[in-house]
Write a structure and sequence with these properties.
single chain; 212 residues; alpha/beta; three-stranded antiparallel sheet; 8 strands
Length: 212
């Protein structure tokens, strides 16, 4: 980790290029780069191209707080497994809310999986999981737990920026965490980018097809 890294990043493309530089040891080893949709998919394409690897997605979705919708209280994978954030408070966000939100997100992920096609083979491969940043780390943690059950050869979590708490959460779930910056005053992922547009579904499909 580089505590002194100059923030904010210009955009996701710049951040992805910097991450690719940190991952050059993977070039020629045909890594599987798994991006967390949708924001990380453009980054995943850049990294996969630089490393001569394969790009796919790992489907996990945030579960918002019932009180503060911008705050994630956990995440759910496409199989319905819920990962609650360490600070989850049942008195503020009840489990009934979590269950409803989880079902909605699973339905969305099933539609996306149908559009994206079957997931790539993980067993025995070097797998690099990419997101555009970690605030709570619950989404990345859910992705890593899912992937560990599929027996990768080596599992790497890769992000440009993260809170220290998020890094501490995900580090035990993978073989390596690659992160460029862990700012002390971390508030949100988007504030660490000058330009942070929403990534549309059509762009994701083109990127997965290798057309952009």
């Amino acid at each position: 980790m580089d505590e002194s890294f100059c923030l904010p990043f210009r955009d996701r493309a710049q951040a992805a290029g910097l991450l690719a530089e940190r991952l050059l040891a993977w070039r020629g080893r045909k890594p599987l780069v798994l991006a967390i949709p949708r924001g990380a998919v453009p980054m995943g394409r850049i990294i996969a191209n630089r490393l001569e690897g394969e790009l796919d997605v790992v489907l996990v979705r945030k579960i918002p707080s019932a009180i503060e919708p911008e705050l994630a209280v956990g995440a759910v994978d496409e199989h319905g497994t819920v990962e609650l954030a360490p600070y989850f408070n049942r008195t503020r966000t009840g489990m009934e809310w979590v269950d409803v939100q989880a079902r909605e997100q699973v339905a969305l992920m099933r539609r996306r999986r149908s559009a994206y096609g079957p997931s790539a083979e993980v067993a025995g491969r070097g797998v690099i999981v990419v997101d555009d940043g970690l605030a709570t780390g619950s989404t990345m943690a859910a992705a890593l737990r899912v992937l560990k059950r599929r027996d990768p050869g080596r599992l790497v979590a890769c992000v440009p920026v993260a809170s220290a708490q998020a890094v501490a959460l995900v580090a035990p779930l993978c073989d390596e965490v690659v992160v460029l910056a862990t700012p002390f005053n971390f508030t949100s992922v988007s504030r660490n980018y000058e330009v942070f547009p929403q990534v549309e579904e059509a762009e994701v499909l083109c990127l997965l097809d290798g057309r952009t």
